[in-house]
Amino acid sequence: MSSEPVVQARGLVKRYGTRTAVDGLDLEVSAGAVTAVLGPNGAGKTTTIETCEGYRRPDGGTVRVLGLDPVADAAALRPRIGVMLQSGGVYSGARAEEMLRHMAKLHADPLDVGPLVERLGLGSCGRTTYRRLSGGQQQRLALAMAVVGRPELVFLDEPTAGLDPQARRATWDLIRELRTDGVSVVLTTHFMDEAEELADDVAVIDAGRVIAQGSPERLCRGGAENTLRFTGRPGLDLGSLLKALPDGSEAAELTGGAYRITGRIDPELLATVTSWCAQNGVMPDGIAVERHTLEDVFLELTGKELRA
Amino acid sequence: MSAGTYTPRPGAAPLHRMIAAQAALETRMLLRNGEQLLLTVVIPALLLVLFSAVDVVDTGAGEAVDFLTPGILALAVMSTAFTGQAIATGFERRYGVLKRLGASPLPRWGLMTAKTLSVLVTEVLQVVLLTVIAFALGWSPQGNPFSVLLLLVLGTVAFSGLGLLMAGTLKAEATLAAANLVFLLLLVGGGVVVPLDRFPEAAQSALGLLPISALSDGLRDVLQHGAAMPWGDAAVLAVWAVLGLGAAARFFRWE
């Protein structure tokens, strides 16, 4: 993986009238990775992405995409990036395959359109005009349009919004293939499972700033503690267990025979617990590690109140 | 698709190929659109046939078709360069087509060039069709074809500027309504089928400054009366072209 970041935003500010959509945002995107930009509605995700795409001129701070200024160097940058807008972008009277072939013609060395159409399940509606496509078909066409020019970097604004589970999986698979082939991907999403499933790196945005960034594992490990549960004989002496566990761990018997251990749950801790069980002749039934999901972390970071 | 399928190989196609592809697509979109065809082909052709065959308006001395054809050619230019282009571009803006193409390798001026080419291609088709119909109706044109060509080009530039100004500043629905209304008003009051001298004298001088009047009057001077080059009308069109394109360049919003 190259060390040069493909996107670098420093102190990015974007205002619409009196409203500040992006408020001193710092973001780095690594080459060859899938980066998910996660945040509640109105957090500034789309504004951030569209500033990277050159649609918005920053009111403050700097943005570099592939080392270029997205506004000043637009002519050099545009052939190298693929863009999927949140919606629209196609002539209402254009046929799906016709539009894709057109986008291909704007590039020097595009993908073969036929296999791409099949790959995204658009074969059956290739002759259908855009306005008659279903929402999911429109989304997949927009995704195909973003990748057909063989870009180095693609920006996908909510690529799976409105897709059924099969189409969602197909989109995920395509994004993974892009990464395997060395394409850098930046996507925005509301879906925690999508970020967890796909992303090498997650940037959580709230109120126009990045409030956390890291791999999904790291984000889930940080913040709230995790939990280990098992059931066994009621009334075990947890004091001896606690002595064996690292500082900061807690152990409790919730109801008769149902035990819960909270703390930093790692393989060593699990080994300690099971060997302690063995010493005490306890079979730890239903032993399970409850990891925090990205959703827990997200809600913890951004609060639980509804956003506008 | 096998491994390596998506390996980046970015790059823009050569500019002339991008513009040609874009112009071809724009032209296909236009010819596929029923309402657009009604406006650009059916209405001018019907008016030409109807008003030549039936004495609805007094077109002055000489054959009606000799009076009508220059006006209908002017109407054809307006329908494509102004009304059709305004409506299509307005909806392209509304549906994010202009925005999406703005992120493609095709530069904005390339998109505008392609749109202009598509308008010109459509106009050629219109002129051929209307000329054939006019000849069938006994049209006997006069004058220098190059003067006609220059007037048609000037008219196209003037109407394109105004159409793009409307499409780039108003909402798509407002553009749809306004472009159709303007089409209708200029059809009646711009010397297309009704001679301007049918209007009160005070109105005549104002109506004469409209781009459609300048175009139909100029074309008529050449094609009906054999004038060399109506510079007055050409100047009116040039002023509209500068104003329209200037304002469009200044105020056009892509989203």
Automatic annotation (TrEMBL), chain B:
Annotated protein name in UniProt: Transport permease protein
Pfam families hit by this protein: ABC2_membrane
Claim: Membrane is one of the keywords in the record: yes
Residues annotated as transmembrane: 37-57, 69-91, 117-140, 146-167, 174-194, 234-252
Main location per the UniProt record: membrane
Ranges for domain ABC transmembrane type-2: 31-255
Recorded topology in the membrane: Multi-pass membrane protein
The organism of origin for this protein: [Kitasatospora] papulosa
Classification via InterPro entries: ABC2_TM, ABC2_TM_bact-type, ABC_2_transport, Nod_factor_ABC_transporter
Protein family (similarity comment): Belongs to the ABC-2 integral membrane protein family.
Metal-binding keyword on record: no
Subcellular location per the Swiss-Prot or TrEMBL entry: Cell membrane; Membrane
Record keywords, A-Z: Antibiotic resistance, Cell membrane, Membrane, Transmembrane, Transmembrane helix, Transport
